[in-house]
């Protein structure tokens, strides 16, 4: 097997075609991305970008990250062929799961935070902050902070602290301070606002460990490059297992870090279709959903231009999803560009479809997926019908479902509401 | 009188200009207009009218609370423009303070046109950098609007120069690293920032973030061309038992601050 990190060196954005004047600016994906933040943060973003570029070119830094990914997180994660699930859900197509659920802390989020925590030390800061929705990124950040002796503060929407109480306890056990955010919709979007307010106030001592491929430059590129390992490994593993590239790669998309992570190594493989499945909530027609690319329009949120759910006056519309990790009205700018360029296809999966796929994977394979990842599994049911029984479909199983047992038990009537 | 003329007049009077902020639509569109007029009557030289936005990441709890209430009451961009029109009729320059997305969504050119038609003097854009203003700057210039961008204590000299170059009306110097809200002390960082900016621009330099009383205004006025006050006015409105009382309290604060900027 290839060493996990050696191929995931820094790459530039996918292109700089776009609106006039946007061509040469860093951090642009076509017309998307950029920096729409208070001037007070620019020095810190420049510092982060500079340190990241130098770290990416520093073999010692890469070796340290590589070592942590192997010995601490357990990379490379395996690819598991799920024949029973494929037979039942995908019209007999070969379905392969990239097992990011087997990472330490239970999701792909650890890939990003280990890199960013190392960067924090390199910059010489002692305090990290992060936002979290489902709690996965918060738990991962608290874990990396504990490992590296950094002070850690996690902002989490009050609504999410209720939905994911177990993850709040996890973060506190790991020594982090969890601050419930009671403004706005009390979910991920508001946790990001509050984390940005903390950062602008404490930027001299604090690094913001951003959890997804959104936010101002350099976060979309930085997080993408740290998650790229998923696809780099998976591409090689699928080749070894099947002797060819997959016909389709599927991932769930909230902010989009696990999706970009698995897509990126396949972007230049023109025959490999890329599918992102967004949270359809109660159904896109109901208006209660988080299908940003499907139903949103380009604008600016949290420091970047991208698709977002907004009304006619540019006010953000609150998103809804059974999955806290996908419950976000924005999406990473690179996804917006992959959508517009036609390279990736984005579709909504509603709560009921996702939960049906969740149950099916539990029963056919003995794997309890995160509800986030179940959206991608639900998408596979459609892809199987479309691509036929000879198809090979690679799915990013981005996280495990331990945190979701309470939600699932209520959904399926195993516990009282 | 336009914004530049206000600063020239203040300079001629050997004082700083007083810039006061309230969000549109709080406690109501009419109530907000009444309060802004009371502030103007008591000595506010330039008015900033906040465009309520769902994700005000540069604002502290006081402004968040008012903006949230304004949005829940249904305030939108058209109400902001109506507020601009009402204040502009007093002859006081009225600038809109807005995060970028509402302007982007309204349409940059359409916003510039409608703001100018309402008699607005320009806009302050806290999350738009001059680097990304290739649509806004030409639209604003075409409609003779002021463009105010922010500088911060963390800004490099290069960025201060670049930002000041794109400003018309005044340069907004953030006094401290942080969000809006009153502070007991306005840090020394403001004086250093203003001194650095002086070396690269002739445009007036106004200091905001944290100022809440006449003494602090006098302190800022000793080195800056303008003193910007927001959260303290909003607090007057939040804490009042009625809109009329809020407007009176805002007027009283404006008088204290107006005396402060003349005491430098």
SSE layout and pairing:
The complex is a heterodimer of chains A (417) and B (264).
Chain A (H helix, E strand, L loop, with lengths): L27 E2 L2 E2 L8 H15 L2 H15 L5 E3 L1 H7 L4 E6 L9 H15 L3 E6 L3 H13 L2 E7 H6 L1 H9 L3 E5 L6 H15 L3 E3 L10 H9 L1 H14 L5 E6 L3 H7 L9 E9 L10 H4 L1 E5 L2 E5 L24 H8 L3 E7 H15 L5 H17 L4 E6 L7 H7 L6
Parallel strand pairs in A: 4-14, 5-6, 5-8, 6-7, 9-10, 9-14, 10-13
Antiparallel strand pairs in A: 1-2, 3-4, 11-12
Helix pairs in contact in A: 2-4, 3-14, 4-5, 4-9, 5-7, 9-11, 10-11, 14-15
Chain B lengths: L2 H10 L4 E7 L5 H13 L4 E5 L10 H12 L4 H12 L5 E4 L2 H7 L1 H10 L4 E3 L11 H7 L3 E3 L1 E2 L5 H10 L4 E4 L14 H10 L6 E4 L5 H8 L4 E4 L1 H9 L3 H19 L3
Parallel strand pairs in B: 1-2, 1-9, 2-3, 3-4, 4-5, 6-7, 7-8, 8-9
Helix pairs in contact in B: 2-4, 2-12, 3-11, 6-7, 10-12, 11-12
Task: Give a brief description.
Chain A is an alpha/beta fold and 417 residues long. Helix content of chain A is 42%, strand content 17%. Chain A has a six-stranded mixed beta sheet with strand order 3-4-14-9-10-13, with helices on both faces. A four-stranded parallel beta sheet of chain A has the order 7-6-5-8, sandwiched between helices. In chain A, strands 1-2 form a two-stranded antiparallel ribbon.
Question: How would you explain this protein's 3D organization?
Answer:
The complex is a heterodimer of chains A (417) and B (264). In chain A, 42% of the residues lie in helices and 17% in strands. In chain A, the strands form 4 sheets. Chain A has a 6-stranded mixed β-sheet with strand order 3-4-14-9-10-13, with helices on both faces. A 4-stranded parallel β-sheet of chain A has the order 7-6-5-8, sandwiched between helices. Chain A has a two-stranded antiparallel sheet with strand order 1-2. In chain A, helix 4 crosses helix 9 and helix 9 crosses helix 11 (257-263). Residues 1-23 of chain A have low confidence and may be disordered. Chain A has 2 domains: 28-71 and 109-223, Rossmann fold; 74-106 and 228-411, Rossmann fold (3-Layer(aba) Sandwich). Chain A is of the alpha/beta class and 417 residues long. By secondary structure, chain B is an alpha/beta fold. Chain B has one domain (3-261): TIM Barrel. Chain B is 48% helix and 14% strand. Chain B has helices at 3-12, 29-41, 61-72, 77-88, 100-106, 108-117, 136-142, 157-166, 189-198, 214-221, 231-239, 243-261, and strands spanning 17-23, 46-50, 94-97, 122-124, 146-148, 150-151, 171-174, 205-208, 226-229. Chain B has a 9-stranded parallel β-sheet. In chain B, helix 2 links the parallel strand 1 and strand 2. In chain B, helix 3 (61-72) packs across helix 11 (231-239) and helix 6 (108-117) packs parallel to helix 7 (136-142). Chain B is globular. Chain B starts with a helix and ends with a helix. Chain A binds chain B through residues 20-21, 25, 34-44, 183-184, 189-190, 192-193, 196-197, 200-204, 297, 299-303, 310, 312-316, and chain B through 53-58, 60, 64, 68, 71, 76-77, 99-106, 126-129, 131-132, 134, 149-156, 159, 163, 174, 177-179.
